[in-house]
Structures are given as C-alpha cells and as structure tokens.
Design goal:
The complex is a heterodimer. By secondary structure, chain A is of the alpha/beta class. Chain A is built from 10 helices and 12 strands. An 8-stranded mixed beta sheet of chain A has the order 6-7-8-3-9-10-12-11, with helices on both faces. Chain B is mainly α. Chain B has a domain of 176 residues: MetI-like fold (Orthogonal Bundle). Chain B contains 14 helices and no strands. The chains are: A alpha/beta, B mainly alpha. The interface between A and B is medium-sized, with 32 and 24 residues.
Chain lengths: 320, 306
C-alpha cells in the first residue's frame, strides 16, 4: 500500500481548549489510485491532508497519535528537517485551494516552478531551465519556454492552477494531496483541471487524495470516497457504492442536498442543526443530534460495519 | 509605470514651488538682514543704500519673481555673509549631507531588517521582546541625546571613535548611528508586521508543502514581499534625514547643508537659506520619485500597471 494512515489524531491547542480536528482517521491509498475525502467545512478533511505533511499551525497543531506510513516508512516520527528534505515536495506534494494566492507575486514562475527541483536536487544549473519548461509542458501551459520570466499576475486563474500543479509534480511525488483544487475556479476551468489531474496520474502513477466538498468533482475523479464528519470518517467505499447505496445517514443527507438537473422542482433538503463542537465532542455517534434515525444506542460510539466490497460505515442502524 | 512616474514628477514640481514660496515669505518675516550686516551706528542713508543694492526695498512678490527667475538658471544670489554664490556654498556642503543620510539609512536598514525578520519568525521569542524594548527606546530618544550619549561612551570613555569631524571612515560611525537611530524602531515594526502577514500567506504555505528550506522561505520568498512596505517608508525617512540632519550635523560639527542653513538662518543670510531649502526640497522630491521607481524593481505587478 502506498499510503496507510491508522487511527490518526490531530489536535489543535487553542485558547478555548483542545480541539480534536482529526479524531481517529484511518485510510489507505494505493499507487495510481484516487481517494476522495469529502465533507463539509470544518469536518477535518483539510487538517487530515495537512497532517500527512505535518504542516499544522505552528505552535498550536500537533499529531497526538496514530501512524502515517508512506511505502512502509513511518512519517510521524521524522524530524522537521527530514520531512522538508525527503518528504515534502519530494514524495508527497500538495496543491492548494486558491490558485490566485498560491503563487508568490514577486517571483517569476520560472523561479517558483524551479524551486522544488533545485531544493530536491532534481535539476540544477543549466539543466534546470529545460526541466522547468518540461514540467510546464506536462501541465499543458501554452508556450512555456517564453513565459518563464513572467509573473503570476500575468496568468489567468486556470493557468495559475496549472503552474501550481507543475510545482507539485516537478519531483514526481508518489502521492499528491489536492485540497479543493477546483473550488476557486470557473466551471469550465474546473473540468480542465480535473482532466489535468487525471493525466498527471496516468503519466506518473501517483496516488491522489482529493479533498473536496463537491460530490460531483469527487465522483468524476475518484475510485473510492471517504466521507468525513466532525473529525472522523463515517463512511468509505467505492464511488458507485457510495452514490448508489449510501449507508450512513450523513452520507444520505449529503447526497439528498445536491441539486439535480431534470429533477422535479422542490425544496432542497438541508441537514437540520449544526455539526458538534470538536473541543468537547459528544461521546457516541457525532451525527446523532442531527440524525433522523437516532436510537438510544447512539449515545455509545458506533461500530464500523463492513458492507462488503470495501464499503463500510460507522452506524448502529447498520449493526443491527 | 511611465504615466505614474510623470504624475509624480508633476506633483513634485508643485511641492518644490510651494516650498520655495513658504521659505521665501517666512525668512523675510524673521527680521532685517541689514541690521546684522552693518555696524550698530551706521547712518540711515547707508542702511537705505545697502537695502537698495540688495533689492530688499522692492515689494515681496517682486522679490519672489526675481528670485524664481534667477533660481531657474541656477543663480540664488551671493551669500550676504560669505560673499560667494549661495548655490556653490550649498553644493560644496551637499555631498557631506548625502553621505551622512545614506550611511544613516544603511545603518537603520541593517538593524531593522534582521531584527524585524527574526522577531516575526520567532514571534514572542527573546529577539522579539528585546527588539520591542529597543524600538521603544529608539522612538523615545531624540537624535541630539543619542548623539551626545554616543560621544560620551565611544569617544570620551572608550576612546574608540572620533567625536567630531568629517573625512575618515571612522568619523562616519557615530553621526550615522545618531541619525539612523530613530527610524530603526518604525522600520523594525513594519518589517515585523509585513513578515508576519507574508509568512501566513498561501504561497508561503505552498512553498513549505513543497519542501523549501526554511532559510529560503524566510530570507528569499517572504522577505521580498515584505520589502514593499519597507521601501515606501525608506523614501520618507531618507528625505527626512536629508532635511533633518542639521541637529546631528551640529553636534558632530559635520560640514553639511543642514548646519550651513541653520547658521545662515541665524545670520539672516537669505540667499543661502533659500538655496539650501530649495535644494533640500528638490532632494526630498527626488528621493520619493526614486522610491516610486524602485517599487517596480521589487513588485512586478506595479511594473505592468498603467
């Protein structure tokens, strides 16, 4: 297995108290596979992604427990220097949400795309220019050779996301964490970026974790999906299984909240209530307070129920 | 960029004209130069005679027009006191003032940038705390007091550096520190807050995520962003140092424009005052223009702006 995360606990020490941003997440990504990490804002999906690279808020963030293994190598015990040298940008790379702010405004894109290549000793000196042009060509940036000296503001949003992608794939990482890579873009550009990620995966065989709140984007790119709620994964399985037979009440509610073309007009179903605070989360099922099929048992932590074919969900309803 | 530059140039021209009018009127409100130039028992006819020769009997606006007319061709009149062209007097002293201001600015930047950066990187750490105390001290201590303390310590007690004079490199040290002391505080603060902003930005997060060494992140990728607000401030401070160096120049017996103008004010030597102030205001405008131009060097977005 390329990436194997077991019982990950990520804590944020805030003034208001200890926030359990990621509370017992386990997931696996195989080579060449795309896993969609889906959930609403605040569900801990971005924190999970940042934990993989240990890029947590300085001072307050900490991985409190669990294990992260990349190709069998444990990452949670590595030093900051080892992470920067061997892991970040080299074997795991990240694409951030907003291409408009993800590039440094005062450095040329040639410098920025070349930076990971230089830092990880992939290319230096005269070979660097060629390597930069090459990687920009791979992300389909038009006439890359003439634009190395240009600055981020001279590119469109979609082009900038391609440049960000070029920075990420320069060192051919084994795993790509894409955090809402399409959210800030127009719909037509979204399609291009999704296709780009697919091409990158075909070219390099990298595993991808796609973090998104957009179930449509997840469905179009991922083979498997993990649904997060309040810092935990509540349901995981193949895309088809999740969409055809969502088993956790939260997943069902999430899918019911998607507007559909051609469906009979009517009100969209919103999920009543608010997600629980992660500073003092409820014992037992965290969705219980909002769940239409709540039972007395839900005050205890629900078991993970195997539904076959790699599909599982944490819910008492399924256990009985 | 060019249009911006042109607009700034025009604004600068108006500032210079405004400054010339103000200084022209104010200096004439300060008293009669003839009294200073002739002995106390000079006969009235001699005073009138002198006034006519110097053109001081004409109305103020006529005097101003004559002044501008001559100033445009570089003639500010002769110093009443030194009997030589006022412009030449100022030009002779100008290099010393510019050298001092440049050294003062270099000193302040050389302190403010590392301290500001380290304060931001180790927020709340000892550099941050010590830096904050020093910044407060810097703002609270006027230049003349800093200058005197420095002389007391380094020239008199330790005997390491000369207390006054102009010429050798060692004579630059104390005046430059006195002049650069005050702006250090404000510059440190602006570098610190700009660095804090940048270090929290998405592009720095991406740089970290891709394994850029922290040293490069701080001193290369973040610092150039933080330099933009610092530059704005430097333009203002450089100009203020050119014009405000007279205190430091006086303490250290520095042969600069500031001291010359101050002496000329006491002697009611109008041509020298006018030439000195005109030149300082031109330098003021020029240094602001220079900063406007240098934005383009640091920030490519401005380079392309029309």
């Amino acid at each position: 297995m390329l990436l194997s995360v077991r019982n990950l606990q990520t804590h944020l020490h805030l003034r208001r108290g200890l926030l359990r941003a990621v509370d017992g997440v386990s997931l696996e990504v195989a080579e060449g596979e795309t896993l969609g990490l889906v959930g609403e804002s605040g569900s801990g999906k971005t924190m999970t992604g940042l934990s993989l690279l240990r890029l947590l808020p300085k001072g307050s963030g900490r991985i409190a427990g669990g294990s992260i293994q990349l190709d069998g190598q444990e990452l949670t015990t590595l030093s900051e220097a080892q992470l920067a040298r061997d892991i970040r940008g080299r074997r795991i790379a990240m694409i951030m949400q907003d291409p408009m702010t993800s590039l440094n405004p005062v450095f040329s894109i040639g410098d920025q795309v070349g930076s990971p290549l230089r830092n990880h000793d992939i290319a230096r000196g005269t070979a660097l220019r060629g390597a930069v042009v090459d990687v920009l060509r791979r992300v389909r940036l038009p006439s890359p050779g003439e634009r190395l000296g240009d600055y981020p503001h001279q590119f469109s949003g979609g082009q900038r996301q391609r440049i960000v992608a070029a920075m990420a794939i320069g060192c051919t990482p084994r795993l790509l964490v894409a955090d809402e890579p399409t959210t800030a873009l127009d719909v037509t550009i979204q399609v291009q970026i999704i296709n780009l990620l697919r091409t990158i995966q075909d070219d390099t065989g990298a595993g991808i974790i796609l973090i998104t709140h957009d179930l449509g984007v997840a469905a179009s790119l991922c083979r498997r999906i993990a649904v997060m709620y309040a810092g935990q994964i509540v349901e995981t399985g193949p895309v088809r299984a999740i969409y055809r037979s969502p088993s956790h009440p939260y997943t069902q509610a999430l899918l019911a909240a998607i507007p559909r073309l051609g469906a009979k007009r009517g009100r969209l179903t919103a999920i009543a209530g608010q997600p629980p605070s992660l500073i003092d989360p409820p014992t037992g099922c965290r969705f219980a307070a909002r769940c239409p099929s709540r039972m007395a048992k839900c005050a205890e932590a629900p078991p993970v129920v195997d539904l076959g074919d790699g599909h599982s969900a944490s819910c008492w309803k399924l256990a009985s | 960029m060019l249009r911006l530059f042109g607009r700034r140039l025009l604004q600068g021209l108006f500032s210079i004209i405004g400054a010339s009018i103000i200084i022209f009127v104010i200096s004439r409100l300060s008293g009669d130069p003839i009294v200073m130039m002739l002995p106390n028992d000079a006969p009235l006819s001699a005073i009138e005679e002198m006034r006519r020769t110097l053109g001081l009997d004409r109305p103020l606006w006529a005097q101003y027009l004559i002044f501008i007319q001559h100033a445009l061709v570089g003639d500010f009149g002769n110093s009443y006191r030194w009997k030589m062209p006022a412009l030449q007097l100022i030009m002779d002293r100008l290099p010393a003032t510019i050298e001092l201001a440049v050294c003062g600015l270099l000193f302040s930047v050389a302190v403010a940038v590392p301290v500001g950066v380290m304060s931001a990187v180790n927020r709340g750490g000892w550099v941050d705390r010590v830096g904050r105390v020093f910044a407060m001290l810097g703002q609270a201590m006027p230049a003349f007091w800093v200058g005197l303390l420095l002389i007391l310590l380094f020239a008199i007690q330790l005997n390491w550096l000369p207390a006054f004079g102009y010429g050798s490199a060692s004579q630059f040290v104390l005046p430059a520190i006195s002049l650069g002391w005050y702006p250090v505080a404000a510059q440190t603060r602006i570098v610190r807050s700009a660095m804090l902003d940048v270090l929290d930005s998405d592009h720095i997060r991406l740089s970290r995520a891709l394994g850029t060494p922290e040293r490069l992140i701080v001193w290369k990728y973040a610092l150039r962003n933080a330099a933009i607000p610092l530059l704005t401030m430097l333009g203002v401070y450089f100009a203020a140092m050119l014009g405000g160096a007279f205190v430091v120049e006086t303490i250290f017996a520095w042969p600069g424009v500031g001291r010359t103008v101050v002496e000329a004010v006491f002697a009611r030597d109008f041509p020298v005052v006018q030439a000195g102030v005109m030149f300082t205001s031109i330098l003021f405008v020029a240094s602001n223009l220079l900063v406007d131009l240098s934005y383009g060097l640091v920030d490519p977005r401005i380079r392309d702006a029309r």
